[in-house]
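Exercise 4. Each item below gives a protein and its sequence. For each, produce the structure-token representation.

Item: 2-oxoglutarate oxidoreductase subunit KorB (Paraprevotella clara).
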Amino acid sequence: MTEEEIIRPENLVYKKPTLLNDTPMHYCPGCSHGVVHKLVAEVIEEMGMENKTVAISPVGCAVFAYNYIDVDWVEAAHGRAPAVASAIKRLWPDRLVFTYQGDGDLACIGTAESIHALNRGEHIAIIFINNAIYGMTGGQMAPTTLMGMKTATCPYGREADLHGYPLKFTEIAASLEGTCYVTRQSVHTVASIRKTKKAIRKAFENSMNGKGASLVEVVSTCNAGWKLSPEKANQWMEDNMFKFYPLGDLKDTATANDSH
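Answer:
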């Protein structure tokens, strides 16, 4: 292959999805949000759903997804994205409807909305970014903050007697009758990025095929909140987050039913 052929856009290993616009991302260096945005945009394009997607963003760092991915967005009140998504999907069942939420939004302020939408089996997909901290508002303790982990509101580390235990929301989701696909992934390596993309694709396809509710948790880093460099944050995540939040599929009834 000649040098000219190598540098042609069609021969590049990475091609930016057309749904991902040119707005400069505000995320901190090393943040997982940008990678997940790219995967979401790629999957929507590959499914040919560019003009039939409605996404719901709530509050927190996740809210800015509407600045970068060129699909129709609805902004929901803090924690209420699954309720809004439920209404939109029922009104327009032919639309691809998903929420994009952080752990503070989904697993704390929106616990009720999230659990009940999943339990009802709403034909929506929820993308759940879990970095174990409130990233936007100053690094406070979240429901997913690990035991002993230091944050702005537990500077000596999370203690069970004082703060309670970390919430494994994805395990709760897997136990609900209305969920068809529940998985926990990450985007810290090339291999993990590929797995996460497949998970998002499966969740979106389940939504369009009326299989029930899907939840894709992405265990992520928050370099600013954790006060670590991107490299050290990834290592800390591997050493600590994955022990409590192990990666892999927790539930996949849609695939199991298809095989019969």
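Check: The radius of gyration is 18 Å.
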